Amino acid sequence: MGDFNEVLSTSDKWGGNIPTRNRLSSFHSMLDDCGLVDLEFKGPKFTWRNNRTDGSLIMERIDMAFANAKWRETFDQAMVFVEAAVGSDHNPLILNTSFPLNKVGKPFRFESFWTSESSCKPVIMEAWAHTYEESEMGRVCKKLKNCKAKLKDWHRLNFGNLRFQITVLKDQLADVQRKLDHGFNSELVTAEKGISKKLEDLWQKDAMYWHQRSRIKWLQLGDKNSRFFHLSTIHRRQRNQISKLKDAHGVWQTETKAIAGIIRDHFHSLYCSPPTRNFDDVIDLVDPLVTDEINCALFKTVTRCLPPAVEVLVSKDVNRS
Asked: Which domain of life is it from (predicted)?
Protein backbone atom coordinates (compact mmCIF):
# COMPACT_ATOMS: atom_id res chain seq x y z
CA MET A 1 0.00 0.00 0.00
CA GLY A 2 1.42 3.39 -0.98
CA ASP A 3 2.49 5.63 -3.86
CA PHE A 4 3.24 3.49 -6.94
CA ASN A 5 3.69 6.50 -9.25
CA GLU A 6 1.71 4.58 -11.90
CA VAL A 7 -1.93 4.29 -12.92
CA LEU A 8 -3.85 1.11 -13.67
CA SER A 9 -5.86 2.50 -16.59
CA THR A 10 -6.37 5.66 -18.62
CA SER A 11 -9.48 6.43 -16.55
CA ASP A 12 -7.23 6.80 -13.49
CA LYS A 13 -5.72 9.99 -14.91
CA TRP A 14 -7.25 13.39 -15.69
CA GLY A 15 -5.30 15.95 -17.69
CA GLY A 16 -1.77 15.78 -19.08
CA ASN A 17 -0.49 13.10 -21.43
CA ILE A 18 -2.44 9.87 -21.80
CA PRO A 19 -0.50 6.87 -20.38
CA THR A 20 0.92 4.66 -23.13
CA ARG A 21 -0.20 1.07 -23.59
CA ASN A 22 3.32 -0.23 -22.87
CA ARG A 23 3.44 1.69 -19.60
CA LEU A 24 0.10 0.28 -18.45
CA SER A 25 1.02 -3.21 -19.62
CA SER A 26 4.28 -3.19 -17.63
CA PHE A 27 2.46 -2.28 -14.42
CA HIS A 28 -0.20 -4.96 -14.95
CA SER A 29 2.49 -7.55 -15.74
CA MET A 30 4.24 -6.77 -12.47
CA LEU A 31 0.98 -7.22 -10.54
CA ASP A 32 0.23 -10.49 -12.34
CA ASP A 33 3.73 -11.84 -11.68
CA CYS A 34 3.35 -11.05 -7.97
CA GLY A 35 -0.20 -12.43 -7.83
CA LEU A 36 -1.66 -9.15 -6.54
CA VAL A 37 -5.19 -7.76 -6.85
CA ASP A 38 -6.35 -4.18 -6.39
CA LEU A 39 -8.31 -3.69 -3.16
CA GLU A 40 -11.60 -1.84 -3.36
CA PHE A 41 -11.63 1.70 -1.96
CA LYS A 42 -14.08 4.33 -0.75
CA GLY A 43 -13.52 8.04 -1.19
CA PRO A 44 -12.13 10.37 -3.90
CA LYS A 45 -11.04 8.58 -7.05
CA PHE A 46 -7.85 10.58 -7.65
CA THR A 47 -5.21 10.46 -4.92
CA TRP A 48 -2.65 12.95 -6.32
CA ARG A 49 -2.93 16.43 -7.83
CA ASN A 50 -0.35 18.87 -9.12
CA ASN A 51 -2.52 21.66 -7.61
CA ARG A 52 -2.10 23.97 -10.60
CA THR A 53 -4.76 26.56 -11.34
CA ASP A 54 -3.62 27.77 -14.77
CA GLY A 55 -5.58 25.20 -16.78
CA SER A 56 -2.87 22.51 -16.61
CA LEU A 57 -4.33 20.63 -13.65
CA ILE A 58 -3.40 16.93 -13.54
CA MET A 59 -5.03 14.38 -11.25
CA GLU A 60 -4.07 10.71 -10.93
CA ARG A 61 -4.88 7.65 -8.88
CA ILE A 62 -1.36 6.48 -8.06
CA ASP A 63 -1.78 5.68 -4.34
CA MET A 64 -3.22 2.18 -4.10
CA ALA A 65 -3.38 -0.95 -1.97
CA PHE A 66 -2.81 -4.46 -3.30
CA ALA A 67 -2.94 -7.94 -1.78
CA ASN A 68 -2.58 -11.53 -2.89
CA ALA A 69 -5.53 -13.90 -3.14
CA LYS A 70 -4.82 -15.64 0.18
CA TRP A 71 -4.76 -12.35 2.09
CA ARG A 72 -7.97 -11.18 0.35
CA GLU A 73 -9.81 -14.35 1.32
CA THR A 74 -8.54 -14.13 4.91
CA PHE A 75 -9.55 -10.46 5.26
CA ASP A 76 -12.67 -10.52 3.10
CA GLN A 77 -14.12 -7.48 4.91
CA ALA A 78 -11.05 -5.29 4.39
CA MET A 79 -11.72 -1.85 2.94
CA VAL A 80 -9.40 0.99 1.86
CA PHE A 81 -10.54 4.54 2.63
CA VAL A 82 -9.16 7.53 0.74
CA GLU A 83 -9.10 10.49 3.12
CA ALA A 84 -9.00 14.20 2.30
CA ALA A 85 -5.61 15.66 1.36
CA VAL A 86 -4.49 18.26 3.92
CA GLY A 87 -1.09 19.91 3.58
CA SER A 88 -0.01 17.47 0.86
CA ASP A 89 -0.64 16.77 -2.82
CA HIS A 90 -1.42 13.12 -1.93
CA ASN A 91 -4.56 11.76 -0.28
CA PRO A 92 -3.74 9.47 2.66
CA LEU A 93 -4.98 5.86 2.55
CA ILE A 94 -6.39 4.06 5.58
CA LEU A 95 -6.76 0.27 5.52
CA ASN A 96 -9.47 -1.20 7.76
CA THR A 97 -9.09 -4.99 7.80
CA SER A 98 -12.45 -5.64 9.50
CA PHE A 99 -14.83 -3.02 8.16
CA PRO A 100 -18.34 -4.08 9.27
CA LEU A 101 -20.62 -4.86 6.36
CA ASN A 102 -24.16 -3.54 6.28
CA LYS A 103 -26.12 -6.70 6.98
CA VAL A 104 -29.37 -6.98 5.06
CA GLY A 105 -31.79 -9.82 4.62
CA LYS A 106 -30.54 -12.13 1.89
CA PRO A 107 -33.06 -12.95 -0.84
CA PHE A 108 -33.71 -16.60 -1.58
CA ARG A 109 -31.52 -17.92 -4.38
CA PHE A 110 -31.98 -21.19 -6.24
CA GLU A 111 -28.47 -22.68 -6.16
CA SER A 112 -27.26 -23.91 -9.54
CA PHE A 113 -25.55 -27.00 -8.10
CA TRP A 114 -28.88 -28.25 -6.70
CA THR A 115 -29.84 -29.43 -10.19
CA SER A 116 -26.96 -31.94 -10.09
CA GLU A 117 -28.56 -33.70 -7.10
CA SER A 118 -31.17 -36.36 -7.87
CA SER A 119 -32.90 -35.70 -4.54
CA CYS A 120 -33.66 -32.07 -5.44
CA LYS A 121 -36.53 -32.65 -7.86
CA PRO A 122 -38.59 -34.82 -5.45
CA VAL A 123 -38.35 -32.06 -2.83
CA ILE A 124 -39.81 -29.55 -5.30
CA MET A 125 -42.48 -31.97 -6.52
CA GLU A 126 -43.60 -32.75 -2.97
CA ALA A 127 -43.73 -29.07 -2.00
CA TRP A 128 -45.61 -28.15 -5.19
CA ALA A 129 -48.20 -30.90 -4.67
CA HIS A 130 -49.44 -29.30 -1.45
CA THR A 131 -53.00 -27.92 -1.79
CA TYR A 132 -54.22 -24.53 -0.56
CA GLU A 133 -57.65 -22.95 -0.24
CA GLU A 134 -56.74 -19.78 -2.12
CA SER A 135 -57.38 -18.10 -5.43
CA GLU A 136 -55.50 -19.51 -8.42
CA MET A 137 -52.74 -16.91 -8.22
CA GLY A 138 -52.73 -17.17 -4.43
CA ARG A 139 -52.08 -20.91 -4.70
CA VAL A 140 -49.13 -20.30 -7.02
CA CYS A 141 -47.61 -17.86 -4.52
CA LYS A 142 -48.15 -20.26 -1.62
CA LYS A 143 -46.61 -23.15 -3.59
CA LEU A 144 -43.54 -21.08 -4.44
CA LYS A 145 -43.18 -20.04 -0.81
CA ASN A 146 -43.48 -23.67 0.29
CA CYS A 147 -40.85 -24.71 -2.28
CA LYS A 148 -38.49 -22.08 -0.93
CA ALA A 149 -38.88 -23.28 2.66
CA LYS A 150 -38.48 -26.96 1.74
CA LEU A 151 -35.40 -26.30 -0.41
CA LYS A 152 -33.73 -24.27 2.33
CA ASP A 153 -34.29 -27.08 4.84
CA TRP A 154 -33.07 -29.68 2.32
CA HIS A 155 -29.93 -27.65 1.58
CA ARG A 156 -29.15 -27.15 5.27
CA LEU A 157 -29.55 -30.87 5.94
CA ASN A 158 -27.53 -32.12 2.95
CA PHE A 159 -24.86 -29.48 2.44
CA GLY A 160 -24.61 -26.96 5.26
CA ASN A 161 -21.28 -25.14 5.01
CA LEU A 162 -19.54 -26.40 1.86
CA ARG A 163 -16.13 -25.00 2.74
CA PHE A 164 -16.21 -26.56 6.20
CA GLN A 165 -17.05 -29.95 4.67
CA ILE A 166 -14.19 -29.55 2.18
CA THR A 167 -11.76 -28.79 5.03
CA VAL A 168 -12.90 -31.86 6.98
CA LEU A 169 -12.54 -34.14 3.94
CA LYS A 170 -9.08 -32.75 3.11
CA ASP A 171 -7.95 -33.56 6.67
CA GLN A 172 -9.39 -37.07 6.35
CA LEU A 173 -7.65 -37.58 3.00
CA ALA A 174 -4.31 -36.39 4.39
CA ASP A 175 -4.69 -38.77 7.34
CA VAL A 176 -5.41 -41.74 5.04
CA GLN A 177 -2.46 -40.89 2.78
CA ARG A 178 -0.12 -40.65 5.78
CA LYS A 179 -1.18 -44.16 6.82
CA LEU A 180 -0.57 -45.43 3.28
CA ASP A 181 3.05 -44.26 3.58
CA HIS A 182 3.63 -47.26 5.88
CA GLY A 183 2.57 -49.77 3.24
CA PHE A 184 -0.23 -50.95 0.96
CA ASN A 185 -3.65 -51.50 2.51
CA SER A 186 -6.67 -52.26 0.33
CA GLU A 187 -9.13 -50.70 2.80
CA LEU A 188 -7.11 -47.48 2.94
CA VAL A 189 -6.89 -47.35 -0.87
CA THR A 190 -10.67 -47.74 -1.12
CA ALA A 191 -11.16 -45.05 1.52
CA GLU A 192 -8.78 -42.72 -0.33
CA LYS A 193 -10.72 -43.10 -3.59
CA GLY A 194 -14.04 -42.52 -1.82
CA ILE A 195 -12.86 -39.37 -0.05
CA SER A 196 -11.25 -38.04 -3.25
CA LYS A 197 -14.51 -38.51 -5.15
CA LYS A 198 -16.47 -36.67 -2.45
CA LEU A 199 -13.90 -33.86 -2.47
CA GLU A 200 -14.12 -33.43 -6.25
CA ASP A 201 -17.91 -33.27 -6.01
CA LEU A 202 -17.82 -30.65 -3.23
CA TRP A 203 -15.17 -28.60 -5.06
CA GLN A 204 -17.41 -28.51 -8.12
CA LYS A 205 -20.42 -27.45 -6.03
CA ASP A 206 -18.33 -24.78 -4.30
CA ALA A 207 -17.18 -23.42 -7.67
CA MET A 208 -20.78 -23.33 -8.92
CA TYR A 209 -21.86 -21.57 -5.70
CA TRP A 210 -19.34 -18.74 -6.10
CA HIS A 211 -19.70 -18.60 -9.89
CA GLN A 212 -23.40 -17.88 -9.44
CA ARG A 213 -22.65 -15.02 -7.02
CA SER A 214 -19.74 -13.52 -8.94
CA ARG A 215 -21.90 -12.92 -12.06
CA ILE A 216 -18.84 -13.65 -14.19
CA LYS A 217 -20.18 -14.89 -17.53
CA TRP A 218 -17.04 -14.98 -19.66
CA LEU A 219 -15.23 -17.70 -17.68
CA GLN A 220 -16.56 -21.24 -17.61
CA LEU A 221 -16.65 -23.43 -14.53
CA GLY A 222 -13.48 -25.41 -13.88
CA ASP A 223 -11.47 -27.12 -11.16
CA LYS A 224 -9.31 -24.06 -10.42
CA ASN A 225 -11.88 -21.28 -10.69
CA SER A 226 -13.52 -21.38 -7.26
CA ARG A 227 -11.03 -18.91 -5.72
CA PHE A 228 -11.41 -16.54 -8.69
CA PHE A 229 -15.20 -16.53 -8.35
CA HIS A 230 -14.90 -16.05 -4.58
CA LEU A 231 -12.59 -13.04 -5.00
CA SER A 232 -14.89 -11.57 -7.66
CA THR A 233 -17.80 -11.85 -5.23
CA ILE A 234 -15.78 -10.15 -2.47
CA HIS A 235 -14.85 -7.30 -4.82
CA ARG A 236 -18.46 -6.78 -5.93
CA ARG A 237 -19.75 -6.92 -2.36
CA GLN A 238 -17.22 -4.34 -1.16
CA ARG A 239 -17.86 -2.11 -4.17
CA ASN A 240 -21.59 -2.10 -3.42
CA GLN A 241 -21.12 -1.15 0.22
CA ILE A 242 -22.42 2.29 1.26
CA SER A 243 -20.18 3.44 4.11
CA LYS A 244 -21.66 6.94 4.52
CA LEU A 245 -24.33 9.26 3.11
CA LYS A 246 -24.98 12.98 3.45
CA ASP A 247 -28.40 13.79 4.93
CA ALA A 248 -30.73 16.68 4.05
CA HIS A 249 -28.82 18.98 6.44
CA GLY A 250 -25.47 18.29 4.75
CA VAL A 251 -24.17 16.10 7.59
CA TRP A 252 -22.38 12.83 6.79
CA GLN A 253 -24.04 9.82 8.43
CA THR A 254 -22.17 6.54 8.95
CA GLU A 255 -24.58 4.53 11.14
CA THR A 256 -26.49 1.80 9.31
CA LYS A 257 -29.91 2.95 10.59
CA ALA A 258 -29.18 6.56 9.67
CA ILE A 259 -28.10 5.57 6.14
CA ALA A 260 -31.23 3.45 5.72
CA GLY A 261 -33.36 6.38 6.91
CA ILE A 262 -31.78 8.75 4.36
CA ILE A 263 -32.48 6.31 1.52
CA ARG A 264 -36.04 5.69 2.72
CA ASP A 265 -36.79 9.41 3.08
CA HIS A 266 -35.34 10.13 -0.36
CA PHE A 267 -37.56 7.66 -2.18
CA HIS A 268 -40.56 8.55 -0.01
CA SER A 269 -40.29 12.19 -1.05
CA LEU A 270 -39.54 11.18 -4.63
CA TYR A 271 -42.69 9.12 -5.08
CA CYS A 272 -45.00 11.09 -2.78
CA SER A 273 -44.29 14.54 -4.19
CA PRO A 274 -46.76 15.85 -6.81
CA PRO A 275 -45.68 15.40 -10.44
CA THR A 276 -43.82 18.38 -11.83
CA ARG A 277 -44.78 17.75 -15.42
CA ASN A 278 -47.71 16.41 -17.41
CA PHE A 279 -46.44 13.68 -19.74
CA ASP A 280 -49.73 13.23 -21.62
CA ASP A 281 -48.36 15.14 -24.61
CA VAL A 282 -45.47 12.68 -24.85
CA ILE A 283 -47.58 9.56 -24.24
CA ASP A 284 -50.00 10.61 -27.00
CA LEU A 285 -47.13 10.35 -29.49
CA VAL A 286 -46.37 6.72 -28.56
CA ASP A 287 -48.17 4.04 -30.55
CA PRO A 288 -49.75 1.50 -28.17
CA LEU A 289 -48.54 -2.08 -28.69
CA VAL A 290 -51.05 -3.71 -26.34
CA THR A 291 -54.42 -3.85 -28.08
CA ASP A 292 -57.76 -4.09 -26.29
CA GLU A 293 -57.90 -7.79 -27.20
CA ILE A 294 -54.45 -8.45 -25.70
CA ASN A 295 -55.36 -6.44 -22.63
CA CYS A 296 -58.49 -8.55 -22.05
CA ALA A 297 -56.40 -11.73 -22.34
CA LEU A 298 -53.94 -10.41 -19.77
CA PHE A 299 -56.75 -9.75 -17.29
CA LYS A 300 -58.21 -13.26 -17.57
CA THR A 301 -58.35 -15.32 -14.39
CA VAL A 302 -55.72 -18.05 -14.03
CA THR A 303 -57.60 -21.33 -14.46
CA ARG A 304 -54.99 -23.91 -13.52
CA CYS A 305 -51.44 -24.45 -12.22
CA LEU A 306 -49.49 -26.49 -14.72
CA PRO A 307 -46.97 -29.09 -13.43
CA PRO A 308 -44.46 -28.06 -16.16
CA ALA A 309 -43.78 -25.01 -14.00
CA VAL A 310 -41.83 -27.35 -11.76
CA GLU A 311 -39.78 -28.54 -14.74
CA VAL A 312 -39.01 -24.93 -15.68
CA LEU A 313 -37.87 -24.20 -12.13
CA VAL A 314 -35.48 -27.15 -12.12
CA SER A 315 -34.12 -26.79 -15.67
CA LYS A 316 -33.81 -22.98 -15.96
CA ASP A 317 -30.41 -21.27 -16.18
CA VAL A 318 -30.12 -20.39 -12.50
CA ASN A 319 -26.84 -18.55 -13.05
CA ARG A 320 -28.78 -15.69 -14.59
CA SER A 321 -30.29 -13.20 -12.16
From this structure: Eukaryota
Distances (CA, A) of 166 to 122, 170, 192, 225, 302: 26, 6, 14, 15, 46
Closest to 128 (Cα-Cα) out of 113, 141, 116, 144: 144
Q: Which segments of the chain have a pLDDT < 50?
A: 216-219, 221-224, 321
Do 31 and 66 meet the contact criterion of CB atoms below 8 Å apart?
Answer: yes
pTM, full prediction:
0.41
For residue 252, list its beta bridge partners: 246
Q: How many angstroms separate the CA atoms of 314 and 295, rounded?
A: 31
Amino acid at 54: D
Residue 312's CB: how many other CB atoms inside 10 A?
A: 9
| C-alpha to C-alpha distances, 227 to 181, 209, 224, 251, 255, nearest whole angstrom | 30, 11, 7, 40, 32
Structural domain 2-96, CATH architecture: 4-Layer Sandwich (3.60)
- Give yes or no for a contact between 47 and 60, defined as CB atoms under 8 angstroms apart: yes
3-state SS of the chain is CEECCCCCCHHHEECCCCCCHHHHHHHHHHHHHHCEEECCEECCCCCEECCCCCCCCCEECCEECEEEHHHHHHCCCCEEEECCCCCCCECCEEEECCCCCCCCCCCCCCCHHHHHCCCHHHHHHHHHCCCCCCCHHHHHHHHHHHHHHHHHHHHHHHCCCHHHHHHHHHHHHHHHHHHHCCCCCHHHHHHHHHHHHHHHHHHHHHHHHHHHHHCCCCCCCCCCCHHHHHHHHHHHHHHCCCCCEECCCCCEECCHHHHHHHHHHHHHHHHHCCCCCCCHHHHCCCCCCCCHHHHHHHCCCCCCCCCHHHHHHHHCCCCCC
Alpha-carbon separation of residue 179 from 173, 189, 192, 193 (angstroms): 10, 10, 11, 14
Q: So what's the pLDDT on residue 60?
A: 92
What is the pLDDT at residue 45? 86
Structure confidence at residue 223 (pLDDT): 44
